[in-house]
């Protein structure tokens, strides 16, 4: 129906109503308009992601590419600067303020908001890294660097994460990853104390490299699962994932310092891991390098280590470190991450390993890649090759979950029972990776 015809019909209906009824109808129409606006806002959610934070940038270049960029002060509705397509400006740190400068003018402020038109792409360049984004950008100082927070449209965020995190082209596996990435994204994180953002763009959250990273498969998978998230008893789950299980997934409490057992993160035999290149592995590390790395990581001289308790499938739960003054017991996952951080070439892929010493060399032999909790990426790839659909994949790796359409008004706020460290010990994206509880590291 044409808009003019609809208006004439509506006025005709009003003319036949009593005055009191007209008032009630008008109130109802106004309330409906608010509901429609609210529904529209919820149907286009954003994820607040701190981008390029691991580089600790003091200066970046922002460029308008697909349309205008409007520069706002946080307290103003009208733009104080506008960048036209092809035009760029420099964002930099000036003491306690942020500066945006181009050839003709510049602005200093405590913070800046950069607003593109809907769907407009723009770029950030920091050093030799250039990435394209959609959605607004909030900029403010963070100590000695810039804090750059992209309010990324959810679909763009999910498609980019799937492309970065899932290295395969099969559609069903990509769909499963899209649901997982969306669940992880909309389930606001409690890792970041500032509250200015929910996630970062690296492995502390999920790898997000902007819209140029999106592939046709990751976009198609995102669209095919639009709005779908994973819940357990009505709450969004901790949608953790990793690379390869080694033949058995892990219970959350066996890997992390979890105060609660999560019923959907139960370890189980995994028959879909056989073709993974990480199913079984071995690596050798010079003993002097390994002990030095552990000493630097844990702040005391380490002279050796003893393998501790194991879960039922064989993953180590603890490792005891030997020191001149005695012993200290740490989580096996913390032991592994300490070695991979300090010695990237050591390639200690999981906590499912045995260790031996031969002269001046430690030899590790193990199974799987990553923490082992939740979804296995090599597993869903194999399931896809066997003709299984993404619903089968998600229900296999997450016990008892439901796939639901995301609606912020209907999904309960998630509980946060899994915590590797007390919140006071966490410091944004540069903190230790054991706080992340995810992906194949």
UniProtKB/TrEMBL annotation:
Q: Where is this region: Disordered?
A: 412-441
**GO biological process annotations for this chain's record?**
sporulation resulting in formation of a cellular spore
Q: Which domain of life is it from?
A: Bacteria
Coiled-coil stretches noted in the UniProt entry, renumbered to this chain: none
List the biased-composition ranges (Basic and acidic residues). 423-441
Domain Sporulation stage II protein D amidase enhancer LytB N-terminal span(s) in chain numbering: 144-232
Any Pfam family matching the protein: SpoIID
**Protein name per UniProt:** Sporulation protein
